[in-house]
Amino acid sequence: MHLEDILYTQGFGTRRVCAGLLEKGLVQVYTNEYSSEKEINSAVAGVFIASTATECIANAGSFNLRFKVQGVDWEYHDKAYVLFHKPAGSECSQKPSMYPSIYTFLPSPLRLRPQKSAIQGVQAVGRLDQDTTGMLLMSDDGQFIHRMSSPKKHVSKVYEVTTKHPLDDKQVQKLLSGVVLDDDPKPVKAAAAEIVSEHHLKLTLTEGKYHQVKRMLAAVSNRVEGLHRSQIGGLKLPDDLLPGQWRWLTEADMALMLGPSVSVTSQISQTKSE
Q1: Based on the domain organization, do 261 and 139 belong to the same domain?
Q2: Are 186 and 209 found together in one domain?
Q3: Element (H, E) at 58
Q4: Which band of pLDDT confidence, cut at 50, 70 and 90, is reported for residue 28?
Q5: Residue 20, C-beta contacts closer than 8 angstroms, at least 6 positions apart
Q6: 212 with 183, same domain?
Q7: Residue 195 confidence class, pLDDT cut points 50, 70, 90
Q8: Catalytic: 129?
Q9: What share of the chain is helix, strand, coil (3-state, %, to 5)?
Q10: Which of 124, 145, 195, 259 is deepest in the core (most CB within 10 A)?
Q11: 222 and 187: one domain?
C-alpha cells in the first residue's frame, strides 16, 4: 500500500489529492520509532511506509503511525472513534434546518473519511436536541454505532437535568417505577434518578426514545429547562474537553464504556470479522 492510499483512508482527499500533497512535500510521517524531532519527510515516506503499511493496517492499535499534513499533526486510525462535546445551538444533522451542524466543528479529515455509503466521514451515535449539550460519540464504524445506540445493549447514559419546578421524592419514585409516554403504552423506567438540588436531577437511562428525558419529566408534572449528557457507560465527559471540542477515544475509554474486555483494537477486529 502506498502512502497516498493510507492518506486517502484517513480522509485527506482523493488519491490524486493525496499524491499531490506528497509531491509538494506537505506530508511528514512519524512512528513510535521516530519522534517529532526525527520526522520522515515526503521524499522517503513512500519507501518507508511501503515496508510497514501492511503491519500498520493489520495492527492499527499497536503500531503508532502519525502524520503531519500541511503542518497539522494527525494520528492514523483504521476506524475513527471520537468523543465530542456538543455545544448548545447545534444540530446532529448533515443538513441542519436552523442551527449549525455538529459536523462543522470537526476537522476536514473526519468529515471526509471514505465510506461505502453516500454519506462520507464519521456519523453521530444517536442524536441530541439542538439545545442539549454534552457527550456525543462519533464513528465511521457501523457496528460500533449500532452497538452503542441499540436499546438491546443497555448502554447507560447519564443526564444532568435542570427542571422548571422543584423536585421531590414522589417524582423520583415515579421515574424509577416507570411512566407511560404518549406513543407507547409500555411504561418507561429510569435506571437511576438522584436529586442533586431542588432543580437539578441526575437521570440515568438505557434507552434512547425520541425526546425521552423531556417527555418523562413532563409525565411527572415537571419540565426540562436545561439538559446535559455527562456520562456514557462508565466514561464521564472530561472537564478539559470544552464545548465544540473533540478527541479520539482511547483503549481506556472503550473499557469504561463497554467493559474491560473490549478495546479499540478488539472493536476493530470484531468489525472486520462481521
Answers
A1: yes
A2: yes
A3: helix 42-58
A4: confident
A5: none
A6: yes
A7: very high
A8: yes
A9: 30, 25, 40
A10: 124
A11: yes
Among the options 5, 78, 129, 253, which is catalytic?
Answer: 129
- Residues linked to residue 151 through DSSP beta bridges, in sequence order: none
Contact yes or no for 198/187 (Cβ under 8 A):
no
pLDDT tens per residue across span 214-269 = 999 999 999 999 999 999 999 999 999 999 999 999 999 999 998 765 555 555 44
Residue 239 lies in a domain: no
CA-based radius of gyration for the chain: 22
Identify the domain containing residue 35 by its residue range: 3-75
User: What values do phi and psi take at 77, rounded to 5?
Assistant: -140, 125
Task: Residue 268: name the closest of 91, 2, 76 by CA.
Answer: 76
Which alpha helices (DSSP H) does 138-274 contain, by range? 142-149, 169-177, 212-219, 251-258, 264-273
* Cα 28 from Cα 38, distance rounded (Å): 10
Cα dist. 213→135, 137, 145, 160, 204 in Å?
A: 15, 19, 21, 10, 10
- CATH number, residue 191: 3.30.70.1560
Q: How many residues does the chain have?
A: 274
Q: Is 27 exposed, middle or buried (0-12, 13-18, 19+ CB in 10 A)?
A: buried
Backbone angles phi and psi of 122, in degrees to 5: -75, 155
Cα angle 170, 154, 151; round to 5: 95
Q: Residue 133 corresponds to which amino acid? A: T
The cell numbers describing 232, all together, are 456514557
CATH classification of the domain holding 100: 3.30.70.580
Q: Please, what's the b/e burial string for 123-156 (b: 16 or more CB within 10 A of its CB; e: otherwise)?
A: bbbbbbbbebbbbbbbbbbebbbebbeeeeeebe
The residues, any chain, with a CB within 8 Å of residue 91's CB and separated by 6 or more, are 97, 98, 99, 100, 101, 102, 130
